[in-house]
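Example record for the data management plan.
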Amino acid sequence: MELIPINAGNFKCDGGALFGAIPKVMWGKQMPADSSNFIKLALRCLLLDNGQQKILVETGVGNHYTEKFSRNNGLLPGNHLEASLKEQGYMPEDITDVLFTHLHWDHCNGAVKNIDGALQLTFPNAIHWCSKKQWEHSKISNAREQAAYFPGLLNFLHNSGKLNLVEKEGALFPNMEVKMFDGHTPGMMIPFISYKGKTIVYTSDLIPTAANIPLLWVASYDLFPVTTLKEKEAFLDEAAQKGYVLFFEHDFYTECATVTKGEKGYLAKEKFGFDKVHEPKILDG
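Corresponding structural encoding:
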C-alpha cells in the first residue's frame, strides 16, 4: 500500500478566525499573517493506493467561483488537484473512491468541475463517500455555516448516483477506519489509516494545522466549540499515548506531527514532512 500527499493548491483565511479566542500575539509567532490578517493555508489531499483501490481523501476547491470570491479567499487559477495527481502518475479516471471528511466548500467542491457552465464529475469512475449525518446536516444548517455549503454542487454529486452515505464508525476500506466528530460540523468523518506499523490520522478541521494542537486553540469556524474541546482532548490523549502521526490538510508549513502531553498540555512533539514517516525514528515513536 502506498500513501501519497496530493497538493490541491492553497488558499487564505483570517488568522483570528482560525484560532478563535487566542490573541494574534500568540498565534502570529507560528502562522505569519499578511497586512490584511490573512494566513496562507494548504489544500492537502491524501491518496491511498492499495493496488485494487485508489482512494482520494478530499478534493480541494474546484473552479466554481467569482473573481471576488477567489480574491477574498486567496485562490489562484489552475487545476492544481489534477496536475498534482498527474505528477504522481494518476489520471482522474484511475480514482476508484473519494472520501470527504465533510461537505464544506474547501473539502469537496473539487469533486465537481465546471466546464463552460456545465457540471461534470472530476472522478467519473469513483464512488464518493461522506457521512449520512453530515449530508443531512448540510440541508438544515443555520445561517452561520450555510455559506460553507454549495447546494448546487452537492445535489449534482448526489444525483449522479455516485455518493454513498456512511452511517457508522468503523472499517471503510482495507487499512482504513473512520471515526465521527461533531464539534466542527456534525458528522465530520476522520480517516485513521494503518501504514507501516503506524496510524496516520487525516485530521481535517478537527486540528487544521499544527498550531491548532494546543487544546484551546479552536477555530471560530466550529459550530459547537465546547464539543470540539471534548472531542479534541480525547483524541489528543489517544494520539499521544499511541504515537499517532497527524497529517494536516490545511497547514501550509507542516505536513505531519506527533503529539506529546506535558505540563502545559498537548503540544507538537515532532514536526516533519510525510517522507519522514518512513524513517525508523518516527515509526518507533
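Summary line stored alongside the record: Residues 76 and 111 are 18 Å apart (CA to CA).
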